[in-house]
Design brief:
With 162 residues, the protein is of the alpha/beta class. It is 44% helix and 20% strand. It is built from six helices and five strands; from the N terminus they run βαβαβαβαβαα. Strands 3-2-1-4-5 form a five-stranded parallel beta sheet, sandwiched between helices.
Length: 162
Amino acid sequence: MKAIYPGSFDPVTNGHINIIKRASEFFDEVVVAVMMNSKKHYLFSLEERKKLVEDSFEDNKRVKVDTFEGLLVDYMKKQNSRAIIKGLRTVTDYGYEAQMALTNKNLYKEAETFFIHSEEEYSFLSSSIVKEVYFNGGELSSYIPNHVEKALLERIKVMKDN
């Protein structure tokens, strides 16, 4: 069965990577669907975010990376998928994600959401926290892969030069 793991991944974190790896042990294929939301301001472009995720899974044949804009359920139908993967860190995440799961089910009756609880070491981690820590000079090696940290360094250099 093919499952869809949607998100912004701006940038992808070790928490995301852990959820994706664990999901790939249960599903035949996990499509990491990097989304574009025109109302959001991203640090990385859609293609850059896609590439950062792809580089994290070069050796995992069960993980594919794609992009989409619009409703997740419309994307799922195009992908011929009924399964949604969502990572949960906290009770607050559950409240929001349960509401989204019910909405998706209402829009697409075949949709099922599978929740995977984050490992304890990633239970606080988000892309927003990574960016905040980074912009304030904090250590990131336990939060993101090396190639993502390198991309952040490059992005900040470009931002400073402009």
